[in-house]
Design brief:
With 430 residues, this protein is mainly beta. The chain has one domain. It is built from 3 helices and 21 strands. Strands 1-2-3-6-7-8-9-10-11-12-13-16-17-19-20-21 form a 16-stranded antiparallel barrel. A 4-stranded mixed beta sheet has the order 5-4-15-14, with no helix packed on it. A hairpin with a 5-residue loop joins strand 6 and strand 7. The two termini are 24 Å apart.
Length: 430
């Protein structure tokens, strides 16, 4: 989701020292865990047209460090990533537009789609069990173009793939003919300006989620998924900010899984003295259906049984509710140092309907019934209610963002417990 005379907005935030136009996953996690109502570089994954807002731009990070670790031991962060955007101006010194941009990023995990990959698959013979491997390509490719009036277009492809191998605990890859997992997404986006005070964004995506043990091609018979997002920025000069309505929808179809979700929200962002604030409220409707999926809710593992695929017994889980989220950042002490805090709270009312054939099994629902649910209170992940972090801005070029581990102040550092930070990212504009 995103764009505007964001160049102008970014310049304004840069003068404040906050630098909101240039952001990272770490900034988002520590400042509300939501990209819908602000413009930042992470927005390129919601709308590829927004890569045109970040010409000649490098980004990288160590990835999340949220897993549990034994006292006195250490473990590397997961899924480090790096990439860049490079732009060629086709205009003149007074107006860089039209402009052509190309970009790429390695290592990002698309959590919106990766969650539909099981841990293991039971083969069509009902006996062979194969592990679903972790994808290794994990590549985002971008192509963007702006018109002379500043309207922007963009294309994006995401490829996460593994076929025929797995990673050993020592980090060495070995042959496993049954190891297959693939996520491919292709999307296009627009970022259009209507007058001086309105920017409109739209994105549409086609995706395919596939997994083993048998190798599959992208255009083989099977299920495709569709995603769409849209939002608009309305300038509100009275509050030095913007009103941001947003809507998104996804229709996910994967082996044994059918997920439909709609989300409608309204947010606001405001430039403060030496800082920035945003807040948003969302309505959420979600319907998840599955057959022959089983879950271990203690370990988080999942198994898909493809043996009885011709006679599925669908379980159904329906969620309806809302979410409120906010974030604030402000320079303190020095213009190059900013602190951030934010949070997100969701409350959903869930209705579970388990097929009679699945009674006694742990599917998406373990039984029929209704209940309320919320996002994790404190499990060390990015889904937690609150986040805290800080950023360092060096000459509006190099920016380093850090998410502080939520348990930092509640453990014994002399025993080597836990970690200081859960994410660290950096960007460089040249």
């Amino acid at each position: 989701m995103k764009l505007r005379s964001a160049i102008a907005v970014g310049a304004a935030f840069g003068i404040l020292g906050v630098g909101s136009a240039f952001a990272t996953f770490a900034r988002i996690e520590s400042m509300g865990k939501n990209t819908t109502y602000i413009m930042d570089d992470v927005s390129i994954f919601d709308n590829p047209a927004n890569i045109n807002l970040y010409p000649n731009y490098l980004i990288g990070g160590f990835g999340p460090y949220t897993q549990d670790i034994a006292t006195g031991t250490n473990q590397d962060p997961m899924h480090p990533n790096f990439g860049g955007i490079f732009s060629l101006s086709l205009g003149d010194e007074n107006n860089p537009d039209p402009r052509l941009s190309i970009g790429g990023l390695f290592g990002r995990i698309n959590e919106d789609l990766a969650r539909y990959l099981p841990t293991r698959v039971i083969g069509e013979n009902g006996r062979d069990v194969s592990n679903v491997p972790e994808t290794v390509t994990n590549f985002d490719g971008f192509l963007g173009f702006t018109l002379s009036n500043g309207d922007a277009m963009g294309l994006h492809i995401y490829i996460a793939h593994q076929d025929g191998g797995y990673e050993t605990p020592s980090g060495i890859y070995q042959v496993d003919e049954g190891a297959y997992a693939s996520i491919v997404q292709a999307d296009a986006g627009l970022n259009m300006q209507f007058g001086a005070n309105i920017d409109f964004e739209f994105m549409f995506a086609l995706a395919r989620i596939q997994f083993g043990p048998d190798h599959k091609n992208f255009f083989d018979d099977g299920d495709f998924s569709f995603l769409a997002k849209s939002r608009a920025f309305f300038t509100l000069e009275a509050i030095d900010g913007e009103l941001v309505p947003a809507v998104s929808a996804k229709f996910i179809e994967a082996p044994g899984i059918d997920n439909k979700r709609a989300q409608v929200g309204l947010g606001i962002n405001v430039a403060l003295d030496r800082g920035f604030f945003w807040m948003g409220v969302d309505f959420i409707w979600d319907k998840l259906e599955a057959h022959d999926w089983s879950f271990n809710y203690t370990t988080g593992e999942s198994v898909y049984n493809s043996y009885d695929n011709d006679d599925p017994a669908w379980d159904e889980r329906r969620d309806i509710g809302g979410m409120i989220s906010f974030g604030i950042e402000r320079n303190i002490w020095w213009d190059w140092f900013v602190i951030r805090v934010g949070g997100q709270k969701s409350i959903l009312y869930t209705d579970c309907d388990q097929n009679d054939k699945n009674k006694g099994k742990s599917g998406i629902c373990v039984d029929d019934g209704n209940f309320f649910s919320t996002n994790p209170l404190a499990n060390g992940t990015a889904d937690d209610h609150v986040g805290f972090g800080f950023g360092i801005n060096i000459e509006e070029k190099l920016k380093i963002d850090v998410t502080v581990a939520e348990d930092l102040l509640f453990r014994n550092p002399f025993q080597g417990e836990g970690r200081f930070f859960s994410r660290l990212d950096a960007t460089y504009s040249f």
